[in-house]
Hints:
By secondary structure, this protein is α/β, with parallel strands linked by helices. The chain has eleven helices and 17 strands. The strands form four sheets. Strands 3, 4, 5, 8, 9, 16 and 17 form a seven-stranded mixed β-sheet that branches. Strands 12-11-10-13-14-15 form a six-stranded parallel β-sheet, covered by helices on one side. Bound molecules: NADP nicotinamide-adenine-dinucleotide phosphate and zinc ion.
Amino acid sequence: MLTVNAYAAPSATAPLVPTTVExxxxxxxxxxxxxxxxGICHSDISNARSEWGPSAYPLVPGHEIAGVVTEVGAExxxxxxxxxxxxxxxxxxCRECESCLRGEEQYCLPGNTLTYGAVDKDxxxxxxxxxxHVVVTEDFVVRIPDALxxxxxxxxxxxxxxxxxxxxxxxxxxxRKVAVIGLGGLxxxxxxxxxxxxxxxxxxxxxxxxxxxxxxLGADHYHATSDPTTFEQLAGTFDLIVNTVSAKLDLxxxxxxxxxxxxLVNVGAPAExxxxxxxxxxxxxxxxxxxxxxxxxxxxEMLDFCAGHGIGSEIEIIPADKINEAYERVMASxxxxxxxxxxxxxx
Length: 347
Ligand code: NAP
Ligand code: ZN
């Protein structure tokens, strides 16, 4: 067993503090990864604060992991010592159900093993990427292409795949009008990816404060949702709207922006229920859907797509002792556009 430095939430209400966690011995199919960078996802905050139900404490968050392989098990064939690799939100699944066989391990029917706060096969609780090392079975480790820096690649492991997957599934591409609600960690990736896929991209943000950034990231249009004329001006416009907002929104107002047969896909995960007037859907054949991260194969495809298009995340690198401050800034929508922990500061 390896004892490694980490940062953990001791309870739902206390700030995160330095700690240590145990990593299992490297099994025949495992790789040991020296973590270099770990992104801070809004979901880390929701989990650390038990917003979606009780979490197991102490909880080491972090499911946007980028690092280097330092040891491999005897049977490992996909990765070698020195490889640049990433780990996202899952570290294992049943591998046998319909979803897993389709490559959609995120929808594993008996339930996959999340990177942190989940019961692992050996009965221990998984602990995430706010730490210096992690041991993961090789099939849940992806390759980070050389064209991407490890720091800018870390957020792709959640924010990247969570937006890439619905953009692909709902056909973002040339001739399609795509809107992104919320220009945060997920939102800024959605803008970059949808633009690279060839779609006409609109940002719907609370204000115009980040408009210059939005246009630089690849948006064609930028509107403030605090301005009621936005909803009149854009009525019936979009083929696809990706909602990345972590809070409750007036869905009917946004559904009104969809064209006939358009879809609004929620990736944002507020704790409160969202309500819909069915007429917002049925009168124009619209859909309201949800999407969870993406499978391992698709995560690799997304990383290769990003490398091919020169797409990384826009990041602010922080030392570990700034994690609590970063959490407050994320909660205040003051993130441009992902905080990434330099895990060497955990040493
Ligand atoms: P984030 O960086 O905090 O971005 C969320 C953005 O939503 C903010 O930057 C802000 O953008 C907007 N926003 C925040 N509060 C708002 C409010 N009250 N009203 C309107 N807009 C508001 O968070 P993130 O890391 O991108 O995550 C976004 C959500 O996705 C979270 O709920 C997270 O848990 C969830 N998530 C889901 C998946 C999945 O698989 N489905 C994966 C990862 C994360 P503006 O300032 O531009 O308005
Ligand atoms: Zn995440």
